[in-house]
Amino acid sequence: MLNWIWFAFFAIAFIMAVCKSTFGGDVEIWSRLMNTTFESSKTAFEICLGLTGVLSFWLGLMKVGEKGGVVAQFSRLINPLFSRIFPGIPSGHPAQGSILMNVSANILGLDNAATPLGLKAMKELQELNTKKDTASDAMIMFLVLNTSGLTIIPISIMMYRAQFGAANPSDIFMPILLATACSTFGGLLLCCLKQKVKLWDKVILGTFLGAIAFIVGIAYFFSQLDQEHLKLYSSVFSNVLLFSTILLFLIAGIRKSVPLFSTFVDGAKEGFQTVVTIIPYQIAMFVGISVFRECGALGYITEGFGWLFNTIGMNTDFVAALPTAMLKPLNGAGARAMMLDVFQTYGVDSFVGHVASTIQGSTDTTMYVLAVYFGSVNISKIRYAAAYGLTADLIGIIAAITMGYIFFY
């Protein structure tokens, strides 16, 4: 998928340039395209270089929290719900523990720990699967939970916003939390209905009603504030919660007698290595999207969506963020590059910059997760997994745009 997306950017740019230079007399487009490749390559590298400090700090902190048992505590907290939505897993089976740990790691933004745990959980679910080439209900439920991308601490998005000079990089914390909660509980509800899980169970019903009440209550509270107070309350709440999280991880490390400094350094080293790893991907996608924009193709797409939404009477100020939404289910690197392109074009603190940030944090990359997780256990018949995962994505994207209007418009 990634190969074809990247190739399409350059192929379409070439065709557009031929048409413009041949029929429109715009021969300068070729020099603009080449200049764009040089400039965007340099910009992509500088962005990655600037991420090193922030990413190293948070991954170091997360390592302390992980060693301090924070993930295990989250697992115990959500166990009553998960034991009911995975009725096909026998009590005490290893898959239960792996699923709980994976989801807990995802919630805390521990991607480096979540993926190995997820693959382990999928392997254990395959042991219970009676049809080895077909996804079981438990596998699909687990996949939808992963693709919907519930994350409490959106580290990567905050650090990209900081790199682009955002006045308050964490101001998207609350909108992302609400949007990703909508995506996760929407996908979870769909799977429960499909798999005939007993929704009237007091734990499941209480969780769903509590989540709905939280989302509606917070959204209503902030929607009643004027823009000045909304920004103030959202900023204070987000930053207090994030700083409290830092302190919580450190306290957890002390309770478990974790050597805080050395553990932090080990995690910070992973942050540096992660930045080095993503540099080639970032350059490739950023250059591709920059060329795609310079040739005019991206403009035509956004104008088309703008015309469509304007025709039905909708406000169209969010439309420039839609390319991020379009790529998010398909490819994480492409969606991230689209978000960065929005930052560079419109400004990181613009309305559309905030919407793109919220969309980026609202869901995970569904098709990638499906390919990796199912591919690891040779599942070829995925049943309704893709449809439900993409539906959860759509719920998250709609929620992200809605939160953008509530918080930033």
Protein described:
The protein has 409 residues and is mainly α. It has helices at 2-23, 29-67, 70-85, 94-107, 111-128, 137-148, 155-163, 173-194, 202-223, 227-255, 260-294, 297-311, 322-327, 332-346, 351-362, 366-375, 385-408. Helix 14 packs antiparallel against helix 15. The longest helix has 39 residues, at 29-67. It is globular, with a radius of gyration of 22 Å. The two termini are 35 Å apart.
Proportion of helical residues: over 70%
Instruction: Report low-confidence residues grouped into runs of 5 or more.
Output: none
* Rg computed from alpha carbons, rounded to a whole number of angstroms: 22 Å
- In round numbers, the mean pLDDT is 85
Query: Main β-sheet, in a few words?
Result: none
- Fraction of residues in β-strands: under 5%
The H/E string reads HHHHHHHHHHHHHHHHH
Q: Which term fits the overall shape?
A: globular
The counted number of beta strands is: 0
Q: Helical element count?
A: 17
Intertermini distance: 35 Å
